[in-house]
Amino acid sequence: MMLEFRTMNHCINPLSVNMLVSRILKHGKKSLAYQIIYRAVKKIQQKTETNPLSVLRQAIHGVTPGSTQGKALAIRWLLAASQKRPGRNMAFKLSSELVDAAKGSGDAIRKREETHRMVEVNRAFAHFR
């Protein structure tokens, strides 16, 4: 089960999946983090009947702000939004948040829009730095 995901992982985009694994990682249990992501990918495939890694890529791209550390921030926001969701387990909550973010809704998208609004409001005061 894990071997399938790792081979699928390396042919698509290992960087974003590995960043996601390292953010989920707790107490050094990397195999548990991979299991959570693998279950989330399976649930995404069942919900959308499309390629789940393209949904993951769309979700990260949709949440990414226009900054230098954008992808790391997007992954952090996606995981924080999925942890806030009520639900059964982390894989279910993560898959729901990724599908919502790929569609353009969800808490992570709202966090990005809120951050962009704050940047626009405070842009006038940038020269005081």
From TrEMBL:
Organism of this sequence: Helianthus annuus
Domain Small ribosomal subunit protein uS7: from-to ranges: 16-65, 68-123
The protein's name: Ribosomal protein S5/S7
Family that this chain belongs to: Belongs to the universal ribosomal protein uS7 family.
Keywords tagged on the record: Ribonucleoprotein, Ribosomal protein
InterPro entries, alphabetized: Ribosomal_uS7 (IPR000235), Ribosomal_uS7_dom (IPR023798), Ribosomal_uS7_dom_sf (IPR036823)
One MF annotation (Gene Ontology) recorded for this entry: mRNA binding
Cellular-component GO terms for this entry: ribonucleoprotein complex; ribosome
GO biological process per UniProt: translation
Keyword Amino-acid biosynthesis recorded: no
